[in-house]
Write a structure and sequence with these properties.
Elements lengths: L4 H29 L4 H4 L2 H8 L4 H9 L4 E6 L14 H11 L3 E7 L5 H4 L8 H16 L6 E5 L5 H10 L6 E4 L10 H12 L5 H11 L11 H11 L16 H13 L13 H4 L2 H14 L5 H11 L6 H8 L16 H7 L1 H11 L20 E7 L2 E6 L22 E6 L2 E6 L9 E9 L2 H9 L7 E5 L4 H4 L8 H9 L4 E5 L12 E6 L16 E5 L4 E4 L3 H6 L7 H8 L8 H6 L12
Helix pairs in contact: 5-12, 7-8, 8-15, 9-10, 9-21, 11-14
C-alpha cells in the first residue's frame, strides 16, 4: 500500500522545515558515535570509578573483554502504581545481559510524580516541567558515557516524554523502552466518573467517593483509562521503540519477565536469527517516525498532552512540528478505537481486542503510516502489528493482531468509528488552541454562550457549588499556561462541567491550561496560545462576552467588533496568584523554568 498523499505531504513539509536542524543533529550523532568505547577512551581513574561497584566478572567483561555495557535509566518508585513493578527489573536485565556475554549497570534514576496524586493541589504546578527535569536526569545518568546501549524504564505522563527527550540527546546509543503494563480492571471508568459527578452535586459523601476511587485504582500497573500514560505506550509502539506488543501486557502476566529479557536481547541485536544491529535512537526517531506517532495518537483518540510533549520530543531530534500538522493529519486519519474517555472500554479490553498491534496494522494497510522506517527490530514496523504469545517457558512467538476481536472497541480502517481523528485546531481572535472532539456529542460541536471568566479552577468550582453556573455558559479559566503557573491539568473541572451539561445547558471550557483529553464529553478549547501571562488575548475576555466555539469550522471567537477587541486592555495576572505560584512545596525552584518556557505549541520547552 502506498503512503496516503496527505501523510506524505505533511511528512515532506516537516522534513523541509527541519532540514537544517536535523542535519546538524545527525552530524552530532555521527561524531559521538564514531568515538572509541568508553572504557577504551576514558582515563584509568575514570574507568575504575565506573566499575568499582560491579562484580569482578563484570569488570573483566567491560574492561578486558570489551563486552557491550547497557546503561539502565529507571523511573522506579512505589508511589506510582505504574512504576512499582520496575523494582526487580534491573536484576532481570543484568542476569539476561550476562547470559549474553554483556553487562548492564543502573546508570541513574529519574523522578516520577503521579498526576493522580497531585491533581488540584499545588504540586500539580510542577508536573509539566517535571518532564524536562526527567530529560535532564536521563542526561545526567547517560553522561557517565560508559555505555554501548540503553534501556529506559518508564510508563507515565511526563516520564516517557522526558526519558525520550533525554535519550535523543544521546542519539548515538541503541535504545529500547521497557514498560510495565496496566493494572487489572477494577471499577469501570464510566462508573467512577458517575460517582465523581454525584459527589460534585453533593449526592455522594467522601466515604462513597473514596470507595469508588479505590475500586478503580487498586493494584500495580497504569491506570486503565486511555490517558497520557497509556497513550505514551501506544506512541512508542508506533515509533518502533518497544519490543513489539509489549505495551499493555499486565505486570502480573507470566510473559512480563520474558518480554523484559527480550528487550535486552533486542538492544544487543540478539533478537533475530539473522545478524542485526539495533540502530541508534537518533536514526530511529526521524520525521517519518514522528508522523507515525501522530497518526497513532489520532487513530486512538489519545491524550491531548502529546500535542505538547511530542513537539518537544521532535525538537530533541532536530525536527519541527506544529499543530497545523496534527490538524491536517486528523482530517484523514480515522478513529479506530473507543477506549475511555472516548468510549466505555478500558485499555485491557483494548488489548484483548487487538491492542496497538491491530491499530498499527490497519494504519499501515491504509497507507496512513510509514512502513519503511527503522525500528529497534530487524523486521521493521510490520513486526509491531503483531501480539506476543508464550510458546514455551522463556520463549516468545508473535501472531497477527488482526482481525479485531471486539469491533465495539477496535474497528478496521475500512469501517472506522469516525472518518477523522477527532482533533481540531481552533483559531480566531483568542489565538490558537486545540479541541478533542472524538468523545463530544455531535450536538455539542458548536457552542455559543456568554462567558464567565475565572482566574483559577478553584474559583470555578466555588461558582458551581453556589449555583451561579446553572445556565448556558463558556467558562474561561486563565493564568494556567506554562509561564503563569507551569500549566497544570485541570481535571477537577470535569465533574462540575459534566453535571452542567447533563442538565441540558450548553457548556464549554476555554483555557490556556491543560485537560489531557479528560474533559471527555464537554467541549474544551485548551492550550490556548499565547497564554494570558504572556499577554495573550484570553486576558481580554470579560464576563458576559459572547464566545463561539465552532469545532466544525475550526474557530474560536469572542463576538465583538474588531475595533473594540483591538482597543480592549489586556488584564494583568493578579499579584496574589503570582505570589502563590512562586513559593511553597518546591514551586520556587521552578521559577526559572516558568520564565524560560516556550509556548504550548512550541512544546513548553525550557531547554531551548
Amino acid at each position: 500500500m502506498s503512503t496516503h498523499s496527505t501523510v506524505q505531504r505533511v511528512t515532506e513539509r516537516i522534513r523541509e522545515r527541519s532540514r537544517g536542524a536535523r542535519e546538524a543533529y545527525l552530524e552530532r550523532v555521527a561524531q559521538t558515535g564514531a568515538r572509541e568505547r568508553g572504557s577504551d577512551r576514558m582515563g584509568c581513574a575514570n574507568v575504575a570509578h565506573a566499575v568499582a561497584g560491579v562484580p569482578a566478572s563484570d569488570k573483566l567483561r567491560i574492561v578486558a573483554e570489551r563486552a557491550p555495557n547497557i546503561g539502565v535509566v529507571t523511573a522506579y518508585n512505589d508511589m506510582l502504581s505504574a512504576h512499582a513493578p520496575f523494582k526487580g527489573y534491573p536484576d532481570i536485565i543484568k542476569d539476561e545481559a550476562r547470559r549474553l556475554g554483556a553487562t548492564a549497570q543502573v546508570a541513574g534514576g529519574v523522578p516520577a510524580m503521579c498526576d493522580g496524586v497531585t491533581q488540584g493541589t499545588p504540586g500539580m504546578e510542577l508536573s509539566l516541567f517535571s518532564r524536562d527535569v526527567i530529560a535532564m536526569g536521563t542526561a545526567v545518568a547517560l553522561t557517565h558515557d560508559m555505555f554501548d546501549a540503553a534501556l529506559l524504564l518508564g510508563v507515565c505522563d511526563k516520564i516517557v516524554p522526558g526519558l525520550l527527550i533525554g535519550a535523543l540527546h544521546f542519539g548515538h546509543l541503541p535504545t529500547v523502552f521497557v514498560p510495565a503494563g496496566p493494572m487489572p480492571s477494577g471499577l469501570s471508568n464510566s462508573a467512577k466518573a458517575k460517582v465523581r459527578e454525584q459527589a460534585a452535586q453533593g449526592l455522594v459523601g467522601r466515604a462513597g467517593l473514596m470507595e469508588a476511587e479505590m475500586g478503580a485504582y487498586h493494584d500495580q500497573g497504569t491506570c486503565t483509562f486511555y490517558g497520557t500514560a497509556n497513550s505514551n505506550q501506544m506512541l512508542l509502539e508506533a515509533m518502533g521503540l518497544h519490543v513489539p506488543g509489549t505495551a499493555f501486557i499486565q505486570p502480573g502476566d507470566s510473559m512480563r519477565e520474558t518480554l523484559t529479557r527480550e528487550a535486552v536481547r533486542t538492544v544487543l541485536g540478539r533478537a533475530a536469527q539473522t545478524a542485526y544491529a539495533c540502530p541508534p535512537i537518533g536514526h530511529v526517531v526521524d520525521e517519518r517516525a514522528i508522523v507515525n506517532a501522530m497518526c497513532a495518537l489520532l487513530a486512538t483518540g489519545g491524550s491531548t498532552n502529546h500535542l505538547i510533549h511530542w513537539v518537544a520530543v521532535a525538537r530533541a531530534a532536530g525536527i519541527s512540528i506544529d499543530w497545523n500538522d496534527f490538524s491536517e493529519l486528523s482530517d484523514v486519519v480515522p478513529l479506530l478505537t473507543r477506549v475511555y474517555p472516548n468510549g466505555t472500554a478500558d485499555v485491557n479490553e483494548f488489548q484483548n481486542a487487538g491492542g496497538p498491534g491491530f491499530v498499527i496494522g490497519e494504519l499501515i494497510g491504509a497507507g496512513l503510516m510509514h512502513a519503511d522506517v527503522l525500528t529497534v527490530r530487524a523486521g521493521g514496523l510490520a513486526e509491531f502489528s503483531n501480539i506476543p504469545e508464550s510458546a514455551e517457558p522463556g520463549r516468545l512467538v508473535w501472531k497477527s493482531a488482526a482481525p479485531s476481536k471486539n469491533e465495539a472497541v477496535a474497528r478496521p480502517a475500512a469501517d472506522p468509528f469516525s472518518p477523522t481523528g477527532g482533533l481540531k485546531l481552533l483559531t480566531g481572535n483568542l489565538g490558537r488552541s486545540v479541541i478533542k472532539v472524538s468523545s463530544v456529542p455531535e450536538d455539542r460541536h458548536v457552542i455559543e454562550a456568554p462567558a464567565r471568566v475565572f482566574d483559577s479552577q478553584a474559583a470555578l468550582q466555588k461558582a458551581f457549588t453556589a449555583g451561579e453556573l446553572d445556565r448556558d455558559v463558556v467558562c474561561v479559566v486563565r493564568w494556567q499556561g506554562p509561564q503563569a503557573n507551569g500549566m497544570p491539568e485541570l481535571h477537577k473541572l470535569t465533574p462540575p462541567l459534566s453535571v452542567l451539561q447533563g442538565k441540558g445547558f450548553k457548556v464549554a471550557l476555554v483555557t490556556d491550561g491543560r485537560m489531557s483529553g479528560a474533559s471527555g464529553k464537554v467541549p474544551a478549547a485548551i492550550h490556548l496560545s499565547p497564554e494570558g501571562a504572556a499577554g495573550g488575548a484570553i486576558a481580554k475576555v470579560r464576563d458576559g462576552d459572547t464566545i463561539r466555539l465552532d469545532s466544525i469550522a475550526g474557530t474560536l471567537q469572542v463576538l465583538v467588533s474588531d475595533q473594540e477587541w483591538e482597543a480592549r486592555e489586556i488584564a494583568r495576572m493578579p499579584d496574589e496568584l503570582r505570589h502563590a505560584d512562586g513559593h511553597g512545596l518546591g514551586r520556587e525552584l521552578f521559577a526559572g523554568m516558568r520564565r524560560n518556557a516556550l509556548t504550548a505549541e512550541e512544546g513548553a520547552c525550557t531547554w531551548l
